[in-house]
């Protein structure tokens, strides 16, 4: 990129920069916490940690504005709770379920229409792919999917450049 | 005088307040403010561009006072004069709005108020007599020559129209663009009613940047709204259209015609697109005048023209859709009533309808009631209308997604499109997994660099320093178990990048077996690690050689290298 691009890309508040900051911080933290894995299992664990860190930093960068970011954060926290201290996982899960159920009743009818309109398989697949997509009607689901795709693109871009940077 | 007019406006507004009118008190004030500005501009402060932005809402708010006079002056002949038309447009809009004033327009926020105030001012300047007419609600042109001067003074109609048009875009699809410059985001609410109709212009705007389009639509809307409520909604839409940035060429009858055609479709994006094209063609009249104002005025002129037509249905009915629009307009009260009765379902859906373009702009202000107009020849059942709104919302989102997902421009149909979207999301997620795995293997180096440096580099996404083939240094890091034999092996396999993966795979596998001592699960290791190492090694090589990396990276998305985690 030419220098001109450099200056024009520096937006400290953009999603990209926020995500990069968060992600780098968590990567460094992971590096410090665990020694470089020698065994494959350790490598797997580390891999998973990095992926979780990436997802979490992306969701944090997006904030609570979006349903999918909130759902993703809840999922990560639930997982942490489950694996960490032996807190009753049911508590948190119930919270999420309630939220889903409340919306579910309202959306049930719309979901049925959505399925008819767009194909049951596809809508359900999309719901599974987009975090938090289970409790949304098609219209919002598409909205969230669009924003999610945009953020995923950013995430892939940043991660790729980090990986490239560190591989050279 | 201004105050008097304002008061009138307020009274009118309040009297007509419907449930849609949320904050009558707040609105008048806003209206007053904005309308005052508008009035000033319209009255002849043509040169004052600054006023225009503020006056966006004025268009809507322009109560009958000024509109009446304006309407009168907006005889068809006047449209021929660019300046006049501009002014007229403005007046028309305001007049229409005021005439019908009933708040059925659903002008929620200060839009109408602003318009009114603006109109008040404008009226003050030249139209004292008409005010009386307005009061009576007689907006039909009584004396064509009443306001020739004032009309000519009308501020840049383009700017005005633009504002008006913008107002109609309450869904804020592209409204945000329109509204923000003017600083009257609330005005969007006002036009919720007309929102359906205005959606088209919004779409058109980004595409064609045609301000006139919106104006045209606004005008049409204005015209078609025979009823007061309709007029208000129309005016709202009209204003919105005007508000949108239009280049403002001449907005003459052509615009009006296009308006009429557009009018027919309630919130039909198709209509709007028609109008857009139509108006685009028709706007060439006042380039000089409108340019200055950023097209605001031009927006106004078409709007005004539309209003005029409303007043003079017979004369204006040049466009094909006039009659239809009128009929459609007739359905509106029905729809609106139904909308009122079904506040939960219809308004919400209608809101979505208006937000058709919302995906591209800021979220529209929360509106509870959206009046959807039934299209000609379509059922006016509230359920079917809501259904239609919903469907249009969904199709709008699908279009947006089509732009996001690469290679989907030619895909038609929801099912295929959804398939593509699903595949794309899956591939992106797999890429993230793979990259995280890659990062996990090359992590150690992060400690050495400062975060800021990294962030800077990464944000700028520099090209990978391809030339460094000093990969051997990396190898030990990536493959700690293979320190001994790797460097030589890897460098040997550099030349043939494409076949690297296979060669490396075999090499690694072969190496794995002798090195089982280092792994507890020797037998399972090769199988488990095969793909990962394969991918990682490939990626490692890829990063060394930029050309190759690009190739391989390019091939990644298709998903052939997704690590089997």
TrEMBL record, chain A:
Protein name: IBH1-like N-terminal domain-containing protein
Entry superkingdom: Eukaryota
Pfam families listed in its UniProt record: IBH1_N
InterPro entries according to UniProt: bHLH_AtIBH1-like, IBH1-like, IBH1_N
Keyword check for Transcription regulation: yes
Residues in IBH1-like N-terminal domain copies: 13-79
PANTHER family: TRANSCRIPTION FACTOR IBH1, TRANSCRIPTION FACTOR IBH1-LIKE 1
Automatic annotation (TrEMBL), chain B:
Transmembrane spans: none
Localisation per UniProt entry: Nucleus
Classification of source organism: Eukaryota, Viridiplantae, Streptophyta, Embryophyta, Tracheophyta
Keyword Transcription (UniProt): yes
Keywords (A to Z) from UniProt: Nucleus, Transcription, Transcription regulation
Family matches, as PANTHER family: STEROL REGULATORY ELEMENT-BINDING PROTEIN, TRANSCRIPTION FACTOR BHLH49
The name this protein goes by in its record: BHLH domain-containing protein
Annotated InterPro entries: bHLH_dom, bHLH_ZIP_TF, HLH_DNA-bd_sf
Record carries keyword Nucleus: yes
Residue ranges, compositional bias (Basic and acidic residues): 1-19, 247-263, 328-341
Major subcellular site: nucleus
Region (Disordered): 1-26, 240-364
Domain BHLH: 378-428
Record Pfam families: HLH (PF00010)
């Amino acid at each position: 990129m030419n220098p001109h691009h450099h200056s024009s890309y520096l937006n400290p508040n953009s999603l990209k920069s926020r995500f990069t900051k968060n992600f780098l911080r968590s990567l460094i933290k992971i590096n410090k916490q665990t020694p470089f894995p020698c065994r494959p299992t350790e490598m797997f664990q580390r891999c998973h940690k990095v992926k979780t860190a990436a997802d979490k930093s992306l969701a944090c960068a997006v904030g609570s504005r979006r349903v999918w970011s909130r759902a993703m954060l809840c999922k990560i926290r639930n997982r942490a709770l489950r694996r960490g201290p032996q807190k009753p996982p049911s508590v948190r899960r119930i919270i999420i379920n309630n939220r889903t159920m409340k919306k579910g009743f309202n959306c049930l009818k719309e979901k049925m229409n959505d399925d008819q309109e767009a194909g049951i398989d596809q809508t359900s697949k999309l719901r599974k792919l987009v975090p938090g997509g289970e409790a949304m009607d098609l219209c919002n689901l598409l909205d969230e999917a669009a924003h999610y795709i945009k953020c995923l693109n950013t995430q892939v871009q940043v991660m790729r450049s980090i990986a490239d940077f560190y591989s050279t | 005088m201004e105050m008097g007019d304002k008061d009138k406006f307020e009274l009118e507004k309040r009297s007509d307040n419907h449930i849609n009118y949320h904050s009558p008190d707040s609105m008048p004030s806003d209206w007053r403010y904005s309308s005052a500005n508008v009035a000033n501009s319209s009255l002849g402060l043509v040169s004052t561009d600054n006023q225009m932005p503020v006056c966006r809402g004025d268009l809507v708010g322009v109560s009958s006072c000024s509109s009446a006079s304006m309407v009168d002056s907006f005889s068809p002949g006047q449209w021929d004069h660019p300046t006049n038309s501009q002014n007229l447009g403005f007046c028309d809009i305001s007049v229409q709005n005021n005439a019908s004033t009933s708040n059925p327009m659903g002008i929620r926020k200060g839009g109408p108020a602003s318009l009114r105030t603006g109109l008040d001012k404008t009226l003050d300047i030249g139209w004292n007599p008409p005010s009386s007419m307005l009061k009576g609600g007689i907006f039909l042109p009584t004396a064509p020559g009443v306001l020739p001067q004032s009309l000519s003074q009308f501020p840049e109609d383009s700017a005005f129209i633009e504002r008006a048009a913008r107002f109609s875009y309450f869904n804020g699809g592209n409204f945000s663009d329109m509204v923000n410059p003017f600083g009257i985001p609330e005005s969007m609410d006002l036009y919720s009613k007309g929102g359906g109709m205005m959606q088209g212009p919004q779409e058109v705007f980004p595409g064609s940047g045609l301000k006139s389009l919106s104006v045209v639509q606004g005008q049409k809307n204005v015209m078609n709204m025979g009823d007061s409520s309709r007029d208000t909604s129309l005016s709202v839409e009209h204003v919105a259209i005007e508000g949108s940035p239009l280049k403002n060429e001449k907005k003459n009858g052509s615009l009006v015609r296009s308006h009429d055609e557009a009018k027919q479709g309630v919130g039909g994006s198709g209509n709007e697109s028609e109008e857009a094209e139509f108006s685009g063609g028709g706007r060439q009249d006042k380039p000089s005048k409108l340019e200055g104002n950023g097209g605001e005025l031009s927006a106004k002129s078409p709007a005004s023209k539309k209003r005029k037509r409303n007043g003079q249905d017979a004369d204006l009915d040049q466009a094909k859709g006039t009659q239809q629009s009128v009929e459609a307009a007739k359905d509106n009260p029905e729809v609106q009533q139904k909308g009122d009765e079904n506040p939960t379902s219809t308004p919400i859906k209608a809101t979505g309808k208006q937000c058709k373009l919302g995906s591209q702009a800021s979220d529209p202000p929360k509106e509870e009631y959206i009046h959807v107009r039934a299209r000609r020849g379509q059922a006016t059942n509230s359920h079917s209308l809501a259904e239609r709104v919903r469907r249009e919302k969904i199709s709008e989102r699908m279009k947006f997604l089509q732009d996001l997902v690469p290679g989907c421009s030619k895909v038609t149909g929801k099912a295929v499109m959804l398939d593509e979207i699903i595949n794309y999301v899956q591939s992106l997620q797999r890429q993230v997994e793979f990259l995280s795995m890659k990062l996990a293997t090359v992590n150690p180096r992060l400690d050495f660099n400062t975060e800021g440096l990294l962030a800077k580099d990464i944000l700028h996404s520099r090209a990978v320093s391809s030339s460094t083939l000093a990969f051997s240094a990396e190898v030990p890091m990536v493959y700690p178990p293979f320190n001994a034999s790797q460097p030589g092996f890897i460098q040997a396999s550099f030349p043939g990048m494409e076949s690297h993966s296979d060669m490396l795979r075999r090499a690694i596998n072969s190496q794995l077996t002798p090195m089982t001592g280092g792994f507890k699960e020797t037998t399972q290791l090769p199988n488990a690690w095969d793909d990962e190492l394969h991918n990682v090694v490939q990626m490692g090589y890829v990063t060394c050689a930029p050309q190759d990396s690009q190739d391989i990276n390019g091939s990644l998305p298709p998903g052939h290298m997704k690590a089997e985690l």
